[in-house]
Amino acid sequence: MSEPVRIGLLGRGTVGGAVCDLLEDRADAIREAAGRPMELAGVLTTSQGDFDSILADSDLIVELMGGTDDARRYVLAALEAGKPVVTANKQLLAQHGDELFAAAEASGVEIRFEAAVAGVVPIIRTVTEAFGSVPFTRVFGIVNGTTNFILSEMAETGASYDDVLARAQELGYAEADPTEDVNGADAAAKMAILARLAFHAPVTLDQVSFEGIESVQPDDLSYAKELGLSLKLLGVAEKLEGGIAVRVFPCFLYPGHPLAPIGGPFNAVTLEGPEITEVTLSGPGAGGPQTAAAVIGDLISIVAGNRVPRRPEGPIEILSDVESSFYLHLEVADRPGVLAEVAKSLSDAGISVKSVVQKGIGDDARLVMVVHRCPEKEFMGVVDEIADLDYMRSRPRFIRVIEEESV
Amino acid sequence: MSEPVRIGLLGRGTVGGAVCDLLEDRADAIREAAGRPMELAGVLTTSQGDFDSILADSDLIVELMGGTDDARRYVLAALEAGKPVVTANKQLLAQHGDELFAAAEASGVEIRFEAAVAGVVPIIRTVTEAFGSVPFTRVFGIVNGTTNFILSEMAETGASYDDVLARAQELGYAEADPTEDVNGADAAAKMAILARLAFHAPVTLDQVSFEGIESVQPDDLSYAKELGLSLKLLGVAEKLEGGIAVRVFPCFLYPGHPLAPIGGPFNAVTLEGPEITEVTLSGPGAGGPQTAAAVIGDLISIVAGNRVPRRPEGPIEILSDVESSFYLHLEVADRPGVLAEVAKSLSDAGISVKSVVQKGIGDDARLVMVVHRCPEKEFMGVVDEIADLDYMRSRPRFIRVIEEESV
To answer: Phi/psi of residue B106, each to 5°?
Structure first.
């Protein structure tokens, strides 16, 4: 195995700490995916480390310190020294994107920033790589988890904005000072980045108009429910006659909209264009391990470049004896004791019934039930047994069920 | 600009034709994204072309002919000649993946196949690149659009399987011989590919158990509705104690499940793991231009490799005068003629009301309405006008609405 890639880490907060953990815990998988092992060459925090010596010792810089002054200076220095950069700093990119991309291009090195928009959801590489030549008509989504959590909770509980914000702060979904999240500024920075990439336009933060959710009333949400709408803080970048518009605003969505079901602190982005129709990506927009996973993905892509796909690691057992929950449909003779007999067959095999509906009378009588997760073999055995009983009017039918809490 | 990349195209059916169109229509964007122009070196069809001479003239082979005999021979020959391959052939990969990946590795060239699973939805590059070192616990999804269309239609209309299949064939969502789609075999091939990549396991097609949707009854769907469930044909690859299980089966999903809202011919795949929580990608799983866009994305990635992100192409107008539909909330004095006056103000500005709800009495009276898409400036003007009217008890509130048919 070749020489390790030496990584200089700037900032060791929640995400920086999670990156350190992953570099250690997942070292084998990372080496396998990248083709080279990775190791920390140095860490810069407010209390330790010296940037110049870390830069000199590193092949690659990971910027997770936040802010736009030191971060800008360090990232530019790294790029100018011909060292690739991975950053999760949306403000840095939204405010100084032109300068940073020009520096990267001049040195012929990469700057990657998947974690800057929608956390671990791979929207940046989808826009720039998978759909690198695709003409987009619109890119829009839920790019702030704090506000989505607040709006989901308000809709569900009917509580006021202030009460739900307090709850979000307790749960860690909102910062002590939530201003940038709730007034739309955070989403605006992310939309500036997405609009730049999707429309190849030098969009800067001050060109993105934004409104927040501070003045949303429980009333609005209850009327919306009557009208069949759900409320989201949306970022929208769209091509219009004569140019593009990039905006952030609270917005009602009709029920079938791909972003309507995205609840809680999740993020989601929909890409539209004549060739791709409509592609939507969703997932956690924040969280230490999740954001760190996006950073590691960027590191691997920089180091691996155009590697051929890995071959399988070796034999793995392919299992067929698995567990499932089932829906079971029985057409039965309409006479006393049938349900009791079916229930006994299931119970003798250790299978418990979750819900049952008895339907119809006479020749149309049927039992429809859902049973809890059980070994499939056991279930099939009971179905065969039940099929032979004399009150069955046809072969039992069954379909698997994926329940809320399990497979 | 450097020398063109010469592409040898095998097969010119629906997708092959769409690839030819895109190479021509989108030539500038493709050259920009890839860093080099691309041109067709030759096309092999059943009636024209000779593989050996096309291979000799090409830098890269795109296999869209289907089948597993000639396709396997040609793809192996290309890889052995050190020429990268892009293919959309799921059966080829599911049945001969080991051999093809070994050949690619031996020659140090890429084989890419985004279009083989879930069409333009970038699931392959997400699993292998964005999440290249991420440990997955489960990868599951709707990977066959024909069956998803049939099940969506059955649920919506209550029609029988046979009737809906006939309709799907008319609409082009099902083939004349739909066997491979409806019996789960097509989904099984895609899950063999996904399981291989996600779990680094040499999964072959015969290790994937599959069931189809042929025996689903309208009954099952109507009972499911009562139980709050929706029916999907699901592919599931999951890590279990002692190994992995890879299966395809019809399955009921609870309402909040990320795959539950995926309707019609769309595909969607959810990736689960401790670091990423749950990431879902959805979009059109078939279609000529869509599948061709995935092929072009693969071509660009092979040619571009680790290029630095493109800089913006130049100034683009950032527009602020846009159109929206609005929800408008007015707290009004409870007296005759108020609705008429508000309606007149809107109508004078050319804004038409879509729906209106009048609520409460006395000091609690309010009007809640949704207006059709109109220029935002016009709407804001009317809101200012209405705010000044003497029966208004507080400042009007408004929120944008995204309707079914428009932004």
So the answer is: -60, -35
Give the integer Cα–Cα distance in Å for A80 and A60.
12
Tokens of A223: 């009327």
Q: Is A162 helix (H, G, I), strand (E, B) or coil?
A: helix
B96 touches chain A (CB under 8 A): no
Give the pLDDT band (50/70/90) at residue A176.
Answer: very high
Q: Where are the alpha helices (DSSP H) in A126-235?
A: 145-157, 161-171, 179-182, 185-199, 218-227
Q: What percent of chain A has pLDDT over 90?
A: 75
Q: Would you say the C-alpha torsion B301, B306, B307, B308 has a positive or negative sign?
A: positive
DSSP H helical ranges for B138-184: 145-157, 161-171, 179-182
Q: 3-class DSSP state for residue A277? A: strand
pLDDT single digits (tens) A15-32: 999 999 999 999 999 998
**Separation of alpha carbons B144 and B119, rounded Å:** 10
Chain A residue numbers with beta carbons less than 8 Å from the beta carbon of B287 are: 277
Tell if the CB–CB gap between A263 and B256 is shorter than 8 Å: yes
User: What band does B311 get if pLDDT is binned at 50, 70 and 90?
Assistant: low
Place of tokens 């190479």: B23
Which amino acid is located at A40 in the chain? L
Residues of B whose CB is below 8 A from A203 = 318
Evaluate the CA torsion angle B45, B51, B56, B59 in order and state its sign.
positive
Contacts of B348 (CB under 8 A, 6+ apart): none
Task: Count the alpha carbons within 13 Å of A161 in the hemisphere toward its beta carbon.
Answer: 14
| Helices and strands, number each (H, E), in chain A | 14, 15
Tell me, what amino acid is at B376?
Answer: E
Ordered structural domains, chain A, with CATH: 5-116 (3.40.50.720), 123-285 (3.30.360.10), 323-401 (3.30.70.260)
Task: Specify the DSSP element, H or E, that contains A52.
Answer: helix A51-57
- Establish if B79 touches chain A: CB-CB under 8 angstroms: no
- ipTM, two decimals, is 0.92
Residue B50 burial class via C-beta count within 10 angstroms: exposed 0-12, middle 13-18, buried 19 and up: exposed
* Span between the terminal Cα atoms of chain B, in Å: 39
- pLDDT higher than threshold 80 for residue A346: yes
B72 pLDDT more than 90: yes
Catalytic residue status for B377: no
* Angle formed at CA A37 by CA A34 and CA A38, multiple of 5 degrees: 95
Q: Which of B190, B232, B354, B377 is catalytic?
A: B190
Q: Is B103 exposed, middle or buried (0-12, 13-18, 19+ CB in 10 A)?
A: buried
Q: Which amino acid is at B116?
A: A
User: Do B397 and A251 count as a contact with CB atoms less than 8 A apart?
Assistant: no
The pTM score is: 0.92
